[in-house]
Specification:
- This protein is of the alpha+beta class.
- Helices cover 31% and strands 23% of the residues.
- A hairpin with a 4-residue loop joins strand 5 and strand 6.
- The longest helix is centred in the C-terminal third of the chain and has 20 residues, at 290-309.
- The protein starts with a helix and ends in a 5-residue tail after the last helix.
């Protein structure tokens, strides 16, 4: 296992050296050249280790298969999925990882720029005293979301292909682009992938197992005003910017990401643009409960109406787009999917920490498409941030769970 541990770390460090941030402003797929570069590297490594049917689609999804052990060919095919892109919300070029054995207290990431990872602000750091941890230099994200998942799956593949003693059923691999901007499954080919059920390795801390997530919607609220020369505007001008500001002030009284936790939903304004004639607000709605989710949509429409009515002569429009739904109902229809992964955690000497995701994964959309797909941890902490870090032992455990899933696939029926 020492050789595997060494390869695993080298893989991860190699992958994070490539800037794969997705670009929400791009209509291409994938939306960044770095993702194409990483897909090409992964394809070459998969071919070299002996994977079959290695194929990168025109839209950037990389597929591969590991043929079943003799006598296991007719067993259900199990899938392993991770995404290649990283978040656009923090710098992602020229990542400089540093490995530190954490002794407690704050961590100075960059003395020259006085960038410190504070234990008080990030208390989860205290769970890893005595562990070797991969940090950044505080100027970029690390990319553990989701290159830790990519590395864990790739190392599982090499271990399984190199060791005939790991008896397994058919295994299907996929590495998706643009998950961070909600497009990871837009062009996903279920037939080519070939799995009957799958697991994304896109979770957080070691031991986490997630099979419930937010219902999600993106809402664009537009306010229209009336433009008049400000010198003669009295009683005539209606400023759409003021409408939008009042709308946002109303949202301030509603649940927000920064004051909710666990299963509590929220409204999250993410952008505002505008002029006197027209102003737009983009707001995210999140809730695990389907009824509360629908109620939040109605509430947002009510707030938009209230804001507009406060400025006579204004008009408003609300456009709601559902982006993904809670995977729980789909997973509950396929209990074997959870039974197998719980056994894999036990085989890796882990007790699963099962909790709802305060977010979404490719697995949520795939589950809705008919491929049950819970989310396994990849080990990272503080995603989408320059304070992101990855305990090396957590990465190793993610690989171990992947290998155990491969073993258990030989017993799937």
């Amino acid at each position: 296992m020492q050789d595997s541990n060494k390869r695993l770390l080298e893989r991860f460090l190699r992958y994070v050296s490539i800037d794969t941030r997705s670009d929400p402003a791009s209509s291409d797929s994938p939306t960044s050249k770095g993702q194409i570069t990483l897909a090409s590297i992964l394809a070459g490594e998969l071919r070299e280790m002996g994977a079959s049917d290695v194929h990168c689609s025109e839209t950037g999804t990389l597929y591969a298969k590991i043929p079943a052990s003799a006598g296991c060919e007719q067993l259900p095919a199990i899938g392993f999925i991770a995404h290649m892109d990283t978040s656009f919300e923090a710098p992602g070029a020229n990542v400089h990882p540093q490995i530190i054995r954490y002794r407690g207290g704050d961590v100075v990431l960059n003395a020259e720029k006085n960038i410190v990872l504070s234990l008080a602000k990030f208390p989860e750091l205290g769970r890893y005293i005595g562990k070797d941890i991969i940090f950044t230099d505080g100027t970029t994200l690390l990319g553990a979301d989701d290159k830790a998942g990519v590395a864990a799956i790739m190392e599982m593949a090499e271990c399984v292909l190199a060791d005939p003693a790991i008896v397994h059923g058919p295994l299907c691999l996929a590495f998706t682009p643009d998950e961070e901007i909600g497009r990871g499954t837009k062009y996903f080919d279920l037939k080519r992938f070939g799995a009957e059920f799958a697991y994304t390795f896109d979770g957080g801390e070691v031991g986490e197992l997630e099979w419930e997530n937010f219902n999600a919607a993106e809402v664009i609220v537009r306010f229209k005003g009336i433009v008049v020369h400000p010198g003669s505007a009295k009683g005539k001008m209606v400023n759409a910017i003021r409408c939008a500001a009042h709308f946002l002030a109303l949202i301030e009284k509603e649940p927000a990401p920064e004051n909710t936790e666990r299963r509590e939903g929220f409204f999250h304004p993410i952008s505002v643009t505008g002029e006197v004639s027209e102003a737009s607000c983009k707001v995210l709605i999140r809730d695990h409960d389907a009824q509360k989710f629908e109620a939040k949509k109605r509430r947002l429409e009510e707030l938009a109406r209230t804001a507009s009515s406060s400025f006579p002569g204004s008009a408003y429009d609300v456009q709601i787009t559902d982006t993904y739904c809670n995977m729980r109902p789909f997973i509950e229809r396929a209990p074997q999917v959870l039974d197998l992964v719980r056994k894999a955690y036990a085989g890796a000497s882990l007790r699963p920490v099962e909790k709802p995701i305060r977010g979404g994964t490719d697995g949520a959309l795939l589950s809705e498409m008919g491929l049950p797909c819970p989310n396994v941890f990849a080990g990272g902490v503080n995603f989408h941030s320059v304070y992101e870090f990855l305990p090396i032992a957590s990465l190793q455990k993610a690989r171990d769970v992947a290998i155990e899933l491969a073993r258990i696939s030989a017993k799937a029926r």
